[in-house]
Amino acid sequence: MAPAQPGGPEVSSGGVDELRRHGVPASAGNLPPLRDEVDEWARAAGLGDEIAESLALAAYEAMANAVEHAYADDDGFLDLDVVRGAAGIEVTVTDHGSWRPPHESDPKRKRGLPLIERLADEAVVTSGEHGTRVRMRWTAPVRHSDDDMAAADA
User: Fold this and answer.
1) Higher per-residue pLDDT: 7 or 12
2) What does pTM read for this prediction?
């Protein structure tokens, strides 16, 4: 994955098979529009209300964790990749910072990752010196094109 570049987000949309937003400034104000984009993408891909809502909420939680925990100086970027493949949908949120644990005194903390794990069929968090990646997967029916169906009927 290409590192985030200062000076504006990298935008890539490959139709209903992928949604990519790289180099997005990691700020709380940028998250609702990204969440809405994920929801709109999922609905345009024909995934249905339940999966669209799960994708959008899980992506939002992962992005919120990046905003809150990745950058000590509050100045960083995140990447969002949503890809539909033969096995289903994969949503990946990547930051390029260093993990900062939440304040233990707040009883409302530590709910994001358990929520992501409940929403996704699989969720894996990997952290290293160059950032944290949250990869979430959903098994979803593959939508076949009319050409695929005609070939199967032949």
Assistant:
1) 12
2) 0.78
